[in-house]
Specification:
Elements lengths: L7 H31 L6 H43 L1 H4 L7 E3 L5 E4 L2 E2 L4 E4 L2 E5 L5 E7 L14 H5 L7 E5 L14 E5 H5 L1 H14 L4 E9 L6 E10 L2 E8 L1
Antiparallel strand pairs: 1-2, 2-3, 4-5, 5-6, 6-9, 7-8, 9-10, 10-11
Length: 252
């Protein structure tokens, strides 16, 4: 019988192992697709069609495996968060002072520099949830383009990261500003700057292109954390474009 996870640290270690495997698998699948496309001229039509079909099957199986693994990591993460909350129960009951912030429906979702714990709120039409430490654990909705000029971000990186931000981090939108994502800590996390301007932005631009082609895009992001840290170690992203689902894991 396998060892039972007994601490938040053990849950996080297992999650990190799964996420590393997912990230490697995602990169390898993308490289395989690119190689086949670049080498198409080397094959006869029937050979290329056979190879392309094999790649399609592999990609579908990888996608299904990633979906199952995403659900597993979410479950392990929630279990780890329960263990972490038990270790930090005193902090859960500290009252918050300062300004109250309300969401689209008038619900208080933030007090001072902290989001409400175990809460669900709506900002600019997108739905967010938080865990027992006030960390954003999911965000999503039907994407729409926002053609307005992007406003200034309202919270500092140190306020968002609460001391857990790293050198090179930036204030990363969970729902991009181009989709109408809010510019405050209700939609911002400490995100690696290279990721923010690289693969994550590339994905967002692909979704923007789909919207420009009048596609319907349903989007969900699940930040994954290490124990009590306010900085996510990874983002599990899934989206549907006209009913076709894709899943990605980005290490932060």
């Amino acid at each position: 019988m396998g060892k039972i996870i007994g601490t938040a640290e053990e849950a996080d270690q297992l999650n990190q192992s799964i996420l590393r495997e997912l990230s490697d698998l995602t990169i390898e699948t993308r490289e395989l697709q690119r190689w086949v496309n670049k080498q198409a001229f080397m094959f006869k039509d029937e050979e290329y069609e056979t190879l392309a079909e094999l790649v399609r099957v592999v990609t579908q199986e990888v996608s299904e495996s990633m979906e199952a693994a995403r659900m597993l990591t979410a479950l392990i993460s929630r279990y780890g968060q329960v263990l972490a909350r038990e270790s930090f129960s005193a902090e859960r009951h500290v009252s918050h002072d300062g300004k109250e912030y309300r969401d689209d429906k008038g619900k208080i979702y933030r007090r001072g520099d902290k989001l409400e714990a175990n809460s669900t709120y709506q900002l600019n039409g997108y739905i967010y949830t938080t865990d027992g430490r006030g960390r954003i654990t999911s965000a999503g909705g039907i994407l729409c383009l926002n053609n307005d000029k992007r406003g200034a971000m309202k919270d500092k990186l140190c306020t968002i990261g609460r001391g857990d931000e790293l050198d090179g981090d930036v204030r990363g939108h969970i729902i991009a500003a181009v989709f109408g994502g809010d510019n405050s800590m209700g939609n911002l996390l400490a995100q690696d700057g290279v990721l923010n301007d690289g693969e994550y932005k590339k994905m967002e631009m692909e979704l923007k292109a789909a919207l420009n082609d009048n596609a319907e895009v349903e989007y969900e992001v699940r930040p994954i954390y290490t124990q009590e840290s306010m900085r996510p170690t990874a983002y599990a992203v899934s989206y549907l474009i006209n009913g076709t689902k894709s899943n990605w894991v980005f290490l932060n």
